[in-house]
Amino acid sequence: METVEHQGFAARLLEWFDRAGRHDLPWQHPRTPYRVWIAEVMLQQTQVRTVIPYYERFMGRFPDLPELAAAALDEVLSAWSGLGYYSRARNLHRAAIRCMEVHGGELPTEAVALAALPGIGRSTAAAILAQAHGQRLAILDGNVRRVLSRWQAVDGSPLEAAVQRRLWALSEAVLPESRLADYTQAIMDLGATVCVRRVPACARCPLAADCQALAEGAVERYPAAKPRRVRPLKRTRMLLARDALGRLLLEQRQASGIWGGLWSLPERDPEAALAAGGAPGRVLRHEFTHYSLDIELWAVPPAAVAEVEGRWLVPVEALTLGLPQPVRRIVEALQRGEEP
Ligand code: SF4
Known about the structure:
There is one protein chain. Helix 2 (33-43) packs antiparallel against helix 8 (121-133). By secondary structure, the protein is an alpha+beta fold. The strands form two sheets. A three-stranded mixed sheet has the order 1-5-4, with no helix packed on it. Strands 3-2-6 form a three-stranded antiparallel sheet. It has two domains: 9-221, Endonuclease III, domain 1 (Orthogonal Bundle), CATH 1.10.340; 233-335, Nucleoside Triphosphate Pyrophosphohydrolase. The protein starts with 8 loop residues before the first helix and ends in a 5-residue tail after the last helix. The protein is globular and about 75 Å long. The chain contains 15 helices and six strands. Iron/sulfur cluster (SF4) is lined by residues 147, 150-151, 194-195, 200, 202, 205, 207-208, 211, 213-214, 219.
């Protein structure tokens, strides 16, 4: 166990939270395990402000775990559409089904069982159990990692196992004895609103008095930057076919792999498109975590996609489906009457 002189770390954080933290987030009212779970998963890659309207829509459609488990994957992806990182939505759906099958229709209340569900993991499981059940468990998401790395001036990349272990131990060492739900929200809020990545607001931080990074005058040094990777570039071609009614053709992708289960423009070799009078258009760049993708967009006549099994939809209908982000941007341009 990490030994650290934390001089009321949690008490200071809670006092700050009572005064300046966020108390009106939709998943705080009521703070049920299901509602916290959906929020935590949405927040994994996305900021609170962006998440709120998606969250409220999602809750309107899938108000509880059995409703989510009973829904078709397509409906779930559609409700997720625009949030990106669709594996999160697929995992939510799989986890809900698993809870119906083996956990009596509830999220497990035991951390190891909860962390074993698709898309959850140790920190998210702890965040759910601390917030919904007040369990005394530490979290270590990106915000908390940044706060703790700075407060104790923890050297080394957070990707290194030894650094991870130290940060987990630190996160456990500073837990309060009570008010775990508020404390968990407080430390996440501090990272999201005060100890932000660029230019943290140390002047209004409750940890400033003993923050080692601040004392060193080197807050920007922590946490150490991850080593830069050169992202490989991949290429693909998408066919944009429109008929006389202004409808475009979308086909559903296979359930697994990139953009699994989403509706997309057909990706085909353009030979047939060329023969049918198609022409290459703009190249759109899309960034994934591990690579960049250049999409060459081909405008083709309907004859060029005669063999594709898909759906012909006007843009406003297409926008109700789960679409990959670059395809969504193309359809939104069409909807505004612009050429993508
Ligand atoms: S004093 Fe500054 S660097 Fe240290 S924890 Fe607070 S906001 Fe972060």
